[in-house]
Amino acid sequence: MSLDMQVLLAQPRGFCAGVDRAIEIVERALALYGAPVFVLHEIVHNRYVVDDLASRGVKFVDSLDEVPEGAVTIFSAHGVAEEVVQRGIARKLRVIDATCPLVTKVHLQAQAYRKEGREVVLIGHRGHPEVEGTRGRIDGPVHVLSTVEEVERLEVGDPRQLSYVTQTTLSVDDTREVIDALVRRFPAIKGPELKDICYATQNRQNAVKQLSDEIELLLVVGSQNSSNSSRLRELGLRKGVPSHLIDGAHQIERAWFRPGMKIGVTAGASAPESLVQQVLLRLRELGVGSVTEMDGERETITFRLPDELR
Length: 310
What we know:
Structural class: alpha/beta
Number of domains: 3
Radius of gyration: 21 Å
């Protein structure tokens, strides 16, 4: 029996240009050099993507020590520390860098602040690969924080010589609060406002904000370790909408639904559209009668591939 439920599909959703580029880099490397190709850390934070590439001969490693000397090695979209780059050179690895250009932009901005003699505050989550990579690109002290409370406890050498950059995949709202707190406490601080939060993060969050006014349940397709996917779920909850982060259709629970419900569906920037379509298929089995895609920002940005793969 149909439950006469409706789905509103977010636009934009799913893969961003940086993720598209990173996955294409791995696929081209496989075609050009053959398996195995080694990738330092997960190329993007999505279980389905990683498992698919692993089945085709990609070896994901946590350290360059696991890579045979001279092997083709790809750095993930999240970026790596300078020390990792130098270790790759020392081990004569054939390195291909899949770092998202927007992450590289953050590295360059932070390095420019250090050249001005400024201490750097990195707004982001400790332990996240992007944050660790950015820290490792800065020659000097780096203060990593993500909350207003941490700003209040922050101790720096010279408040007049302070700067900040941000992890690209944070919540815009949360970052704005932290930046406002930094500016209040350190009026001379220098930073790029919210420009380092990437266009894809911003667009996907805007879509969820718009969607949340019309729905009673939000499904975010993405893996648990995906920062931008987790932020989308948090945004739905903040708007008062029950929200679930799911890796795919197999994690959908019938108990979440009731007759006549309006359901929002979106996907994090590292989740492929094929998973979204599988989720929609499952929702139709559970009683969804119509799927409507919302109007939203159409993304046309693309990023150039590394020279060795073009």
